[in-house]
Amino acid sequence: MYFHTYVGSAVAVGLVVYSVIYGWFRSNSFLGIKGMLLGLVCSVLVNAVFALLFAFWLLPIAKYSSVANEHGAQVEARDQIVRWAQVQEGKRLLFDWGPIEPTDVFPIPPVPRLLTLLSIMGSAIALVWALVATKLFKKRDSISVTAVSLAGVGVFFLVWTGLASYISPLLVDKLRMIFSYLHYRVLAVSFVMIPIMAGFAIFAVYNFIADLILLPLSYKKINKIFIFRFIKGIVVSYLVICTFVFLLLKYEKGNESTDFIGYGPMEDPVIDEKHELGYKGFYFKDDKKDYKFSLDIFNPYKVYENIKNSYAHSVISSKEVFPKETSDIKFGLENYIKPVVESMELNQFTRVGLSGAVGALLQEWNSYTDSSTLNQFNYRGSMFQSLRGFAETVFFGKDPANHDPVLLNNLAKYIGYRYVVLSNAEDINHYTEDNWISLGEKGGWLIFEQKDNQGIVTVTKRPLVLVIGRKAGAFESVFRSATYGMIPYDSAWLVEGGERVDKYNLEELKKFDAIILYGYNYKNRLKAFSNLDKYAKEGGRLFIETGWQFVSKDWQTESAPDFFPVDKLVWNAELGSISGSEVDLTWEGGSWGVSTSTSLKSWAKPILTVDGKHIISGGSYGKGQVVLSGLNLFGLTGYKKYDPKLIELGKNIFNDLIPQYKDENLPLLGLVRDFPDDVTINIKGSIDENTKLMWREGYTPNWVVTLNGKKLKTYRAGIGFVSVILPKTTGDSVLKLHFSLGSVGIISKLISILTVLLFVVLILDSLLYKNKYSQMLIDKLKKPFSGVKVNINKSVKSWKDEDY
Q1: 462-657: CATH topology
Q2: What's the whole-number average pLDDT of the chain?
Q3: CA–CA separation, 726 and 710 (whole Å)
Q4: Can 333-455 and 462-657 be said to share one CATH topology?
Q5: pTM greater than 0.85 (yes/no)
Q6: pLDDT band at 455 (very low <50, low <70, confident <90, very high)
């Protein structure tokens, strides 16, 4: 949906371009500044009215998108933006010069060269015609002005998007917001304009010939009589259509090309069928067909026969629409989706992992089952796109780089997968028998079932670990290391916090069993350290990472707070040999910089030491525990490709730091979801202290969670799901989740209602007062544009009075 709305946005922008060009030609002066300004104002007003009218939809979508941009990392990758510019070359798009980029996921077929040439001719004719008519003879010629304005819109979007391949990739990167907003689908606007202008070229020729023939009738304006103009319009239109059809058929190209157009990932087994007909079957190029220009092209019977015998018609009417050679997987989705669905026990609370290679299946999945999927065809709506993309590299694909069994199982539990569907071309070695059951192959697809699946909702007494750190990558770095085995799903749940420690009060911090500070910050040092000190003394578990140079607030400090196990921290860019550890601390041939100390406090002990410098240290502080790392453990682990030695080091640290738990006396859950925005969870039994619940749908502030009518605070846990801490209760309880649009929903609906009422008022003004009040408003708005006449009381020019 998000990609396709770009086309709608392009139409709105195109209206502005069209109105400005149209305003210039309709202006009385040559410069036409007032006319262009009036066109600009009118188009902006029209767009504004439509925006207000559809505010009930636009504002909630805009709000949702902003949340997705913030939490889901929904920004176009710069390499993708640059790639759009590189593969959509103007010479190929317009003239079919050069091959289609074979590795491009969404290649665009070029415009038939004939249409391009005719549209260039039509645009030139329209421009000259409009200039002569409006600027030289001061006539209001709507046909030529409309044509040249439409041509301007097409050229505008071609320059903005399709011709971006001629712009420096560096500049495209800097302007990626523009190229992201108006990407390759916007070329559809230009591709609509090109045939229109091509047809106009033919029309202009026949119209000129007709005017010459009727020139003798211009005496006493006989040629302006309606019947003459009507006949002229019918004849010219017929000639234009016949000529256009003749040219298309003459330069039609049959099924001679081996090129094909795919849709979706290149490894998609459906796409690998290589549909040889593809778009190439509908190109129009020079061919051996013996079509000669003669009067027969205007014979209706001959026109029909030529169309019937054309290659394009044969493709539509025969079995040639199918590929010459096909695999076992066809686009007849019903034939292979049903066996896949029927092999699983599915309901709306079952989560299924679908490989990104099943693009067509993703589009149709919900037509056959209401089971939940994480991988979605419209991934732009994801609230956790970055980690979702990482998860896709773990579950699917041929590249085994992230195909680690421990990582796979931890992610499967976090996501709540019960089943995973892959193509038979993907690597499956990490789906080990101790955790997964193979359900066999169904029509080219492999199905696995996880033995210990967590479902779409889980209630537990697992510890919650709050990660406080910089938004740009801190939590994701911790989460990736954790799921590789450093902090397994079964040991604790990770909760994504904010960046500033001083944003949390002590009461909020004490809700969490452990806290990780990584890339953290604060404005009020006294408040931040006071709360952390009390948190640890009263039994909290604290892991402080100072090894992220310039990012972690205390990567070097002369006076460490009391709850730090060291007296001060010094940055060391060069280290000698490592003692007591096999951890590799090299970085690009040099040393991995670390934050170190040579002196420990009495309650602390060293964990990792290099040349007498303590890199990791910790101990019991009050009733709690504190571990301080100057290693940048999570960053180093990622840099070293999740080296098992680093994972083991971190696992040992967090096994000692994070408290143990037992999932016992847990209540039973009954789920009801009759409407997507409302979920009811009937909790059978009492809720003990320290009980948490995870609802595996994308976290947004819009989710309102109540337990027995009392609102609960929501947290963003795991890859980006909704988590709550349940208060202690006795007896059964009812937990409700409601997706609320809040004030945005109310305001957006109110705006749309008021806009509709405004239309009603304007209609009544027109019917009862002959636009008296509307005209008063128009007069005030048009004062700055006095050179251009606008009068809504003046009747619209009859079609009988237009020039043809």
Answers
A1: Rossmann fold (3.40.50)
A2: 82
A3: 11
A4: yes
A5: no
A6: very high
| Residue pair 485/645 in contact by the 8 Å Cβ criterion | no
Pairing of β 417-423 and β 351-354: parallel
Tell me the C-alpha distance between 154 and 115, whole Å: 13
Residue among 9, 14, 7 nearest 62 (CA): 9
Sign of torsion, CA 343 345 349 353? negative
Higher pLDDT, 74 or 698: 698
Task: Provide the pLDDT for residue 515.
Answer: 98
Residue 417's DSSP bridge partners are: 351
Cβ 686 vs Cβ 730: under 8 Å: yes
Q: Is 218 exposed, middle or buried (0-12, 13-18, 19+ CB in 10 A)?
A: exposed
Q: Is the pLDDT of residue 800 over 90?
A: no
Q: CA–CA separation, 282 vs 319, rounded Å?
A: 16
Between 428 and 253, the higher pLDDT residue: 428
- Any idea where the domains of the chain sit in the sequence? 214-327, 333-455, 462-657, 668-742
Q: How many Cβ atoms are within 10 Å of 273's Cβ, its own excluded?
A: 20
Q: With 50 as the cut, is the pLDDT of residue 577 above it?
A: no
| Tokens (6 digits) for 609 | 């030491």
CA angle 458, 463, 469 (to 5 degrees): 105
Distance of alpha carbon 225 from alpha carbon 88, whole angstroms: 50
- Cβ neighbour number for residue 230 with a 10 Å cutoff: 12
Q: Where are the alpha helices (DSSP H) in 133-253?
A: 142-157, 169-174, 176-181, 187-213, 226-250
d(CA 604, CA 758): 72
pLDDT tens digits for range 234-261? 999 999 999 888 888 777 655 444 444 4
CATH 2.40.160: does it fit domain 333-455? no
HEC readout, 145-172: HHHHHHHHHHHHHHHHHHCHHHCCHHHH
CA atoms of 247 and 236, how far apart (whole Å):
16
Q: What is the DSSP string of 594-652?
A: EEEBS-B-TT-EEEEEETTEEEEEEEEETTEEEEEESS-HHHHHHHTTS-HHHHHHHHH
The residues that bridge with 626 in the sheet, in sequence order, are: 542, 619
Given the DSSP bridges, would you call strands 351-354 and 372-373 parallel, antiparallel or unpaired?
parallel
Reply yes or no on whether the pLDDT at 524 is more than 90.
Answer: yes
Is pLDDT of 110 > 50?
yes
